[in-house]
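Weekly structure sync, notes
Attendees: PL (lead), two postdocs, one rotation student
Agenda item 3: pending single-chain targets
PL asked that the sequence for the first pending target be pasted directly into the notes so everyone works from the same version. It is reproduced below exactly as submitted, 247 residues in total.
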Amino acid sequence: ESMNYHELNFKLLNSGHVFGSASIFIEYKDVTLLYTGDFNFTDSLIQKAITPVECDILIIETTYGRPGIIFPPREQIYLDILQWTAKTITENYLPILLVYPLGKAQEITKLFNIYSSIPVVSHPKISKINSIVKSFGSELIYYDLEDYGEELLKSKDCVCLFPSTYNLNILKSKYPNSKIAIVTGWAMVYKLNGFDACFPLSSHADYSQLINFTLSCKPKRVYTLHGYSKEFASKLSKMGIKAHSLN
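Predicted structure, written out during the meeting:
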């Protein structure tokens, strides 16, 4: 979709991050600029990856722009989550996954819908976003915790999704016979204590994907922001690309 404002032409492009996320491509006379916003350079179960666009100026988010932050293959993380959940149920514990309500929650719900018969129970905050996503045509099957989910939780034959910001101590107190895992790319960066498992699934590009995406865009100048912006700009400069951190 293109929009014009005076001599500027704007085009919104899929950024591959979460539902509704977009990058902005701007043309002004003979200069082009791409602002990525948060983006993902690999396909997921719910989003297609961002497509590189050649541009003169690239403004790129570098959340995971530190050398060495390389995520495992997405398919392997999917398998790890499914196997951990099934094992937890066979051990007669309730599996709980802490996820971001927008993006990660829909991806995990889709994962269990497609590759497992395990019912998904979601916290109301997640259910609210799921219902909006469904209204745009995405098929998600889940049970809201307050409407139907409590009975399923008693059986432990389900997986329950809570927002990643939910208080861990309260969760453990409320569901003592549970095992709790968190799903976040930061599991590749920090040691996250208190969880039974951590899965490094991210809706952002990792370091190698950031490099590959930048090279594919063939920019004359790059501006980095968020996360490890200074480290990434420094790496690009050493590669002969004019780069500067905006942080």
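Discussion points:
- The longest helix spans residues 74-90.
- The chain has a mean pLDDT of 95.
Action: rotation student to compare against the earlier draft before next sync.
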